[in-house]
Amino acid sequence: MANRIDLSQTVATLQKFCGTDLTHTLAELETSVRGKDLNSYVQLITAGNANSDVLAAASFMKHVAGQINVVIHALGILLCLPHLLEKDEKIEYVSLGAGNTGRAFDLETNKRIAEFKFIRWQGGPESIRQNSIFKDFYLMAEDISTKHKYLYVLDTKHPLKFFNGGRALSSVLSRNVKLQNDFKNRYGSRFRTVREYYDFRKGNVVLQDVAKLVPGLGEVSLDLEQ
Questions:
Q1: Of the residues 66, 86, 113, which one is the last residue of a structural domain?
Q2: For residues 193 and 24, what is the distance between their CA atoms, to the nearest angstrom?
Q3: 24 found inside a domain
C-alpha cells in the first residue's frame, strides 16, 4: 500500500476482513479451515478477504493509531488557546508535537509560559505520571522567565494530591538522571519530599483545570511522556 493511501479506503479494507464482530469472524475461520487441503484452503481465505492488502491496511492503521496521542495533544492545545489568551496577548511559539521539539515549553506568549498535561488520572500509585508532571512543574518553577507560568491539567484533584503528598523526591527523580543532577546542584538535600519542594515553589506556577474549556477534552486519557 502506498503511503498516501486514503484512510477511509484503509478502514473499508479492514472492515471486509473483520466483519461486524472480529471475534466471531476469527472463530468462523478457525472452524472453516479444519480438514481443508491446500487448494480448498486458499479458496477459503481468499473468499474471506484474508490477503496482503488487509495486512498492509492493518499495519497502516497501527501506525496511524500510534499518532493519536500526538493528535489529541495538539488539538487540545489549539482548542484551549482561544479560552486562555488575553486580547492583547501574542503567541511567540507553540509546541504541538511529542517529545523533544527544541522548545522549552508547550506554549510561550508575551505574557506567559505553559505546559499542557492532558492526562486522565486514575487515583492509584501512578508513579510514572507523577514523575512526568513533577518534571514539568519543576522546569517551569525554576525557569528564570518573569512571565506568568501555568500548568494546565484535566482536573487538579490528583495532581494536587501528589504535590501535597509525602512521596520522596529521590523516588520521583530516580529515573531521570539529568533532572536529578540539576535538582541536586540547586538544592542538595534541602528538600526530602515532593510536598516540601511544592510548598517552596507553588507560588511560581498556577495549576489550572482546562477540562471544561473544550467539549470532549475532559474525556481523553493521554500519556505522551511516560
A1: 66
A2: 52
A3: yes
C-beta neighbour count of 154 within 10 angstroms: 24
Nearest to 98 by CA among 79, 124, 117, 126: 117
**Amino acid present at 205:** V
pTM of the predicted model, to two decimals? 0.79
Q: Give dist(CA 115, CA 73) in Å, integer.
A: 11
Banded model confidence at residue 224, pLDDT cuts 50, 70, 90: very low
Assigned C-alpha cell, 169: 523526591
Is the same domain home to 87 and 159?
yes
Parent domain of 182: 68-219
pLDDT digits (tens, 9 = 90+) for 148-198: 999 999 999 999 999 999 999 999 999 999 999 999 999 999 999 999 999
Selection from 159, 158, 144 nearest residue 206 by Cα: 159
For residues 185 and 175, membership in a common domain is answered with: yes
Per-residue model confidence (pLDDT) at position 221: 62
Instruction: Confirm if 115 and 140 have CB atoms less than 8 A apart.
Output: yes
Bridge partner list, 208: 152
Overall domain count for the chain: 2
Structure confidence by residue, pLDDT tens digits, 49-71:
999 999 999 998 888 887 888 88
Q: Which three cell numbers stand for residue 223?
A: 500519556
CA–CA gap between residue 175 and residue 196 (Å, rounded): 20
Give the CA count within 13 Å in the CB-facing half-sphere of 155. Answer: 14
